[in-house]
Amino acid sequence: MSSILAAILWVLAGTVTALLPMRRQMVPGSLLLLSAPVLLVWLAHDHGWIWLAAGLAAFASMMRNALRYLWARARGERPEIPPELLR
Question: What is the predicted pLDDT for the residue at 46?
Answer without folding.
Answer: 93
